[in-house]
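Supplementary Methods, section 5.1.

A reviewer requested that the exact input to the structure prediction be made available. We therefore reproduce it here, unchanged from the version used in the analyses.
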Amino acid sequence: MHVELITKQDFITMKTELINELKNLFQKPLDQKQWMKSADVMKMLQCSPGTLQNLRINGTLPFTKIGGTTYYAYNDVMNLLEKNKKNAA
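The structure derived from this sequence is encoded token-by-token as follows.
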């Protein structure tokens, strides 16, 4: 029988990697699409069509328009939320 010993540091490193992997799995839904339509973004941000239009016009939220449909990258919406996150006082 072959016995391998691990150090405390090895165990801590493994634990940290495992926690990071679990965070990544649970942070974004597995079925989340890369591109979202305006209605989905308004629901996510809980904003009106006018507010979403203002975010587009002032360049706060990048978008792609194909025909009459406007699409937003999921990552861009999440970045917008992260950039505007405030810490509790």
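Residues 11 and 17 are 10 Å apart (CA to CA). These observations are discussed further in the main text.
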